[in-house]
Sequence to fold (437 residues):
Amino acid sequence: MNPEQYFNPELETLSRDALEALQLERLKKTVNHCMNAEFYRKRFAELGITPDDIQTLDDVRKLPFTTKEDLRENYPFGLACVPLRECTRLHSSSGTTGNPTVVLHTQRDLDEWANAVARCLWMVGSRPDDVFQNSAGYGMFTAGLGFQYGAERVGMLTVPAAAGNTTRQIKFIRDFGTTVLHAIPSYASRIYEVMKEEGCNPRRDTKLRVLCIGAEPHSEEQRQRIEQNLGVKAYNSYGISEMMGPGVAFECPEQNGLHIWEDYFIVEIIDPVTLQPVPDGQLGELVLTTINREAMPLLRYRTRDLTRILPGECPCGRHHRRLARLQGRSDDMIILKGVNIFPIQIEKILLKFKELSTDYLITIETKDGNDTMTIDVELNQLFTDDYRDLQRLEKVITRLLKDEILITPKVRFVQKGALAVSDEKKAVRVKDLRKLF
Fold:
């Protein structure tokens, strides 16, 4: 073991036995701490359980689930486990569909969050002599400040560029010698497109080396295309604001799954319908219990994110379990003609073709009583506009999509730039117009 490859060697290389012993100790402490919140006292009473019922890690299944709806119904501070005077910061969702979800942090919570993100960044090769540029939004959105403080904890020179203004982002990358960049996948692709327009060759004209991507589901094909275009290694990041934000799980240099930091969380994968656990390797909904948090610990939080636990050990020397790339969300699944479809299945096919851009839009609508799927996908600027070439390409893609999703969609090619692009938000991939009727 080379200690220099770990930010915190002691915690990152714990054996499974030692890791689980630490988890149990922290779980018991967390459950007792949760009794400071009326919300959990009431839930425990309804289930007829007490903190003394938690004696093994398997006993986590006795605990109640917590959902985003619980946070909204107890807005703003109903799940706080410490007095507000002990809290240093809060983050919240936009609340566009009702009350926002509010998450509180003590100073210790913020310090541990910075340590978790620093651990992720160090794991992929970031060091104090790197220059880190953050293209995420700051403010209530956790990715901005989460990566900012993690990068500072590593000791890097940080460029808090924030979201948007792609031309300025590229100027900063070139002028400041940025080596480590954080961007959501769709925006990383946007940066490359603008670089091309400006005559900037990222391999020749920048020092970019590491890219941290996350916040929206993406396929392996999209990751590989980003790596090839920007000349970087792109590492998948997973975060969720209810847990803390970025820093929950991250790929190591092996790029064979995301290590989830089990000294911070207890991990479960459940069937989203039956709510029962599924075996390792089987797709299900990720459920997380925080075990290292003061202000607002959450028990068995249903993330709605779909993934699976990858079996086996990672060659990197870390024994924290690995999550597979997210397949989407249980509440984002498209049900069409009785078939369950996830947008990432479609993206995986589209990005096999160099003739296509990374931008696409799936539209579901009802025509003459029949539900249909139309996929608009942008062509790369360098591809031909010859009708016969386009027709052949459309047939090939339609056939592959039918084999993958068991539905025959209508594929339409549109010119580069025809689909709406946002510099600040996650890409819109699906419009289900059936909801309007």
